[in-house]
Structure formats: C-alpha cells, structure tokens
Amino acid sequence: MWWLSRAPKGSCTPWATERDFRDIPHAFAQSVHKNQGRIEIRQGWALSDERAFESMRHYDGWAGLRTVVMVKRERRARDNILISSETAYFLSSLPANADVLLYAALVD
User: What angle do CA 46, 96, 52 make, to 5 degrees?
Assistant: First the structure.
C-alpha cells in the first residue's frame, strides 16, 4: 500500500530550493492544462535524497517515507496575467517518479 500526504506546515524546509535543485538527484515533471479561458501550469519535483529528509522536522515519525515532493501550481488568465500561484509539499512512500506524483498530487 502506498501513500501520498500533504506535508504538515513547517515540516519541510526549503533545503532543495535553496540550492535550486543543483547537484541533488531529483525527478521533474510539468503539465499544462487549458480550461475555461485559464491556463494552469503544474510543476513537480520529487526527491529521495536522505540529506533532504534529515533537514525536515519529525523525519523519524514518517514510516516508509521515500520521497519529498514539491508542487508549484500557477493559474493564468487567457492573456497570460497571473491569477494565483501556490507551492505545496507532499510526503510519499512512492519512488521519486515526478510524473506519477504530480498526477497524484492533483487530487489534493
């Protein structure tokens, strides 16, 4: 049985984003959806690096943790004006397959 859960606020540090994912093994996926005159761009980064886990608070409490996922959602109007932007972190027992995890995070 696998799981994917939104990370509790404050539990994931910007460890990877501070380094702009340089020299950190990760998977990346992006999807673009057009709907009702809006464009939604979703980007997902998935990492399985133990150093990232060690920087998180309460890391030992997540049995089976294999991957930390960062999802950025950006919604734009038809004329490319930014409507909203959101970054969310997820924890998962799945391997670092960004395509699968980005899709799974959509239901959140």
Answer: 55
Tokens 């996922």, residue?
A: 69
C-alpha to C-alpha distance for 1 and 68, rounded to whole angstroms: 17
Quick one: pLDDT at residue 84?
92
pLDDT at 24 over 80: no
- 50's tokens: 């133990």
Distances from the Cα of 58 to the Cα of 10, 16, 36, 92, 105, angstroms: 10, 18, 41, 15, 22
Contact 67, 95 (CB under 8 A): yes
Three-class secondary structure of residue 20 per DSSP: coil
Which of 4-13, 22-31, 84-93, 96-105 is most confident? 84-93
